[in-house]
C-alpha cells in the first residue's frame, strides 16, 4: 500500500526528531513489521506511529455533535474546501434578533462577540440565551465572547448638544471633568478628573483615532480650552488621547485595567456560561493572570481569557502578555491612536508572529470592512487588507461596527468568508503556506513528545496528502499544536468537554466535535470513524491521519500519544 510505504519513510523523521530532542535515554526501541510501526517510551508515556486499513467496523452506540454549517460545507466542498479561518461577529442593534443571529450563524459566524460598553445586561442576557437556543435547537456551534470596557478617558456628555457633534475648524471648546447643569455650548465632559495631568499648551487632543483633532490653547485649573485643528464628528464615549511632537504623550494614571463595572460584567458572563472574555486595554501580564485566577475560582467551566493589544505599553511587554493569555485580539482601532498609523501593518505582523510561536490563537479586528457599515460592497483596499491578514495565517477575523450597527452585516460576513476561502486555496495551490521554524514550548517529557508528534503529524499529513486529520483530546492541547502548524488537511477535534469544544472554535483549521470518549483509544477511533461514515461524510478510499492524546486515568495509567494513518475500507 502506497500510504504505508510513504509513512514508513516518514517514520524515520519522527524518530529522528524525538532523538534530537534529548529523548535518547527515554526511548527503548522502535519495531517495524510492515503495517504496524510502534515506538515505546518508558516513564508512563507511550508514543506510536501506525499505518493500516480501516475496514468493516461496528457502529458503536453514541452520538456525534457536528456543527450543521461545517457539515453542510463538508458535503458541498469536500475536506479541502472547508474554511479554516474563523470568523467573529460583534452583535449589536442591527444583529440581535433571533432571525439575524441565525443568518449570521448560517453565514459562518464561529464566535459572537458582545461589547459590554454598550447596552444593558438584560439586553446582553437576551442575546446570549438566543445564541444558546440556536445552538441547542438548530445544531450550531457558536461560541460567546464578552469584551470588557476597560478604563480609558472618554467623552461622556456634550452638554445639551445632539448625541453626535460636528466640530468645525477653528471652533474653541472646553474639555472638563466637572459635571455641569443645563446646556453649555462647545463644552465636553470627560469621565476622569485627572485627564489633563501632564498636558501642556500646544499638545494635540485627538478624538477616536483622529475623527477630530484639537490644539490645547489654555489650561484652566483641571480643564483644557482647545481649538479645533482638524474638523470632524465625535460621539459620546469617544476616546481621547494626547500627542506631542508626533508622539503619544506617555502618562501613568495608575488606573486599573478592570473597573468595578468590568468585574460586575465578568461575574454576569460567568453566570450566563460564556466561553471567552476579551480584556480591553491590558497593561501587563499580571492583570491577565489576576483575571484568570478569579475566573478559575468562580467558574466550574473553563473560560478562556484573551488579551486585547490596544496600548503602546502592551508592545513593550508583548511576549509575557501573550504567554500568560489564552489568545490575543489585535485591536487596530485603539492601537492606531497609540502608535503612528504607518506602523500598524508591521506591528500587526509582529503580534501574529509572536502568537504563532507561543501557540496562542490571534484575532485581527477593527475596521476590516468599515465602509460596509453604509455600503453593500467593500472597497478594494479593504479586501486587500483582509487578504493580507489571511496571508499571515491569523486564526480569526472580526467584524465590529459592520455587524453591530451596519446596514449590510450579513454581506460583510460573506465577504470575509469568500476572501478566506480564496486566500486559503491560493496558499495551498501556490505552496505559500507560512511554515515557520517554531520554537519548542514543551518542558516535560510528555509535553515535548506531544509537541513533536503534532509537528510530525502535520508534515506527514501534507506529504501524504491525506483527506483529514482526526485528533482526540480532552483539553484541546494537541489540537492547538496541530493548528499551529497550519496543515493543508482540515483538523477534526473530538472531545467530550463542551468548554474545550467552544474554545477550539477559535483555532485555525479546527472543526471541534462533541462525543463521549472512553479510556479505550482504539474504541474511540473506531466509533468516530463509524459515526462519520454513517453520515456519508467518509467514503471508501479516503485517508485519515489520526492523532491521539488521552490523559491517564486509574484504569488507563499510560499517556497514549500516537499517529495512525487509516485508509477507509468498504463498510
TrEMBL record:
Its EC number is 2.7.1.40. It holds the Pfam family PK. One of its GO terms (molecular function) is ATP binding. Residues 83-412 form the Pyruvate kinase barrel domain. Its cofactor is Mg(2+); K(+). Transmembrane segments: none annotated. Belongs to the pyruvate kinase family. Keywords: ATP-binding, Glycolysis, Kinase, Magnesium, Metal-binding, Nucleotide-binding, Pyruvate, Transferase. InterPro entries: Pyr_Knase (IPR001697), Pyrv/PenolPyrv_kinase-like_dom (IPR015813), Pyrv_kinase-like_dom_sf (IPR040442), Pyrv_Knase-like_insert_dom_sf (IPR011037), Pyrv_Knase_brl (IPR015793), Pyrv_Knase_C (IPR015795), Pyrv_Knase_C_sf (IPR036918), Pyrv_Knase_insert_dom_sf (IPR015806). GO terms for cellular component: chloroplast stroma. SUPFAM superfamilies: Phosphoenolpyruvate/pyruvate domain, PK beta-barrel domain-like, PK C-terminal domain-like. This is Pyruvate kinase. The keyword Glycosyltransferase does not apply. It comes from the Eukaryota.
